[in-house]
């Protein structure tokens, strides 16, 4: 990344820097330091000049005597607060995407759709000045939001970033020679519609990674990748990050977390003509029918199945509890509202 498009990430604050101020009651303000600039709040006035030349992480006091902690925003702070057109890739998933897709300095990367540009920012940082990011977005307004967000973060449009408005399936073959792309990251509703052009664009050994929100999309893209015969067996995962409250002896997981964002699925492009050796037994089917219910029985999905003997025991226990309850005899069951007026029935 050229000096002109690298936000300064350390050293004393200078004019042009973005600064995140945490004020009274934890209220956040993000400002860009300007000659003569001032932050006006109902707590008083803070002059930008007070910040210029002092170290990152300093505390400054405004005209009303209120303290503000001043820090340069991290990329994750920036993406979580920037304007959004479409839903963004969260930092926890972006970090995992960079690792699983093996995005490296100097890589040629294709991305679609651009959405709000959150993932573009992470990709641009990872490929560095010697890389190339080609991002596709079919909605022009989203591309505009993304371009503005990326320019705000880097201070200019990074020279190694090209945004093309259009559908990836149509535009990619026009934009890159076959076999010239190192990595492809797809964040869109129907990535399987783009896998054929992605296979054409990827270099042998290159990685395609799709981020999808639902299990049914995950299944469909996995079967599509397999069906082409052009990729290695796909790897699928999801990333859950649980924050912890760590204070004195009160050390415990946070009560709330972002439980679901999306799934990642990745595979590598085989060399032309190569056929991957069979690694494991493949499910015989890839579309759903009534008989597929068999594939979801406890044994088939890896859960322990109850033995007939144990099952008969459970039936006797349940029936004893029901007759104690319904017949009014003393029993162990005393939950409020448990049971019903109708006779117990075992199907
Ligand atoms: C969830 S958003 C992407 C968010 C983005 N990764 C981010 O982190 O900000 C999905 C985007 O994909 C775009 N899209 C869907 N299918 C596409 C296709 N075939 N070609 C190009 N863009 C597509 C949509 O218009 C939408 O803006």
From TrEMBL:
Instruction: Answer whether the UniProt record assigns the keyword S-adenosyl-L-methionine to this protein.
Output: yes
Q: Where is the tRNA (adenine(58)-N(1))-methyltransferase catalytic subunit TRM61 C-terminal domain?
A: 80-247
Q: Identify the stretch(es) annotated as Disordered.
A: 275-301, 316-347
Alphabetic keyword roster: Methyltransferase, S-adenosyl-L-methionine, Transferase, tRNA processing
* Short name of one Pfam family: GCD14
Query: What InterPro entries does the entry give?
Result: SAM-dependent_MTases_sf (IPR029063), TRM61_C (IPR049470), tRNA_MeTrfase_Gcd14 (IPR014816)
Q: Where is the composition biased (Low complexity)?
A: 338-347
Query: What does the entry give for GO biological process?
Result: tRNA methylation
Gene Ontology molecular functions: tRNA (adenine(58)-N1)-methyltransferase activity
Keyword Metal-binding: yes or no? Answer: no
Q: What is this protein called?
A: tRNA (Adenine-N1)-methyltransferase
Q: From which source organism is this entry? A: Microbacterium limosum
């Amino acid at each position: 990344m050229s000096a002109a498009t690298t936000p300064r990430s350390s050293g004393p604050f200078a004019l042009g820097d973005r600064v995140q101020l945490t004020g009274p009651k934890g209220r956040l303000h993000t400002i860009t330091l300007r000659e003569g600039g001032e932050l006006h709040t109902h707590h008083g006035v803070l002059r930008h000049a007070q910040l210029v030349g002092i170290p990152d992480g300093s505390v400054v006091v405004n005209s009303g005597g209120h303290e503000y902690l001043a820090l340069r925003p991290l990329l994750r702070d920036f993406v979580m607060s920037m304007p959004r057109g479409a839903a963004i890739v969260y930092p926890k998933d972006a970090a995992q995407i960079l690792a699983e897709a093996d995005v490296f300095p100097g890589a040629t990367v294709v991305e679609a759709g651009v959405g709000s540009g959150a993932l573009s920012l992470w990709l641009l940082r990872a490929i560095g000045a010697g890389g190339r990011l080609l991002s596709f977005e079919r909605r022009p307004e989203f591309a505009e939001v993304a371009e503005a967000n990326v320019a705000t973060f880097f201070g200019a449009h990074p020279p190694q970033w090209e945004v093309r408005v259009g559908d990836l399936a149509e535009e990619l073959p026009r934009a890159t020679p076959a076999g010239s792309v190192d990595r492809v990251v797809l964040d869109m509703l129907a990535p399987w519609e783009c896998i054929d052009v992605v296979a054409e664009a990827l270099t042998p050994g290159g990685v395609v990674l799709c981020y999808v929100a639902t299990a049914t999309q995950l299944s469909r893209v996995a079967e599509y990748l397999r069906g082409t015969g052009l990729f290695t067996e796909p790897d699928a995962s999801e990333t859950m990050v649980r924050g912890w409250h760590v204070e004195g002896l009160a050390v415990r997981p946070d009560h709330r977390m972002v439980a679901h964002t999306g799934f990642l699925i990745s595979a590598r492009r085989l060399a032309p003509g190569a056929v991957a050796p069979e690694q494991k037994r493949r499910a015989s089917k890839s579309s759903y029918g009534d008989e597929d219910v068999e594939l979801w029985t406890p044994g088939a999905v890896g859960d322990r199945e109850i033995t007939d003997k144990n099952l008969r025991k459970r039936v006797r226990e349940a029936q004893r509890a029901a007759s104690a309850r319904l017949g009014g005899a003393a029993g162990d069951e005393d939950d409020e509202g448990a049971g019903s007026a109708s006779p117990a029935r075992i199907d």
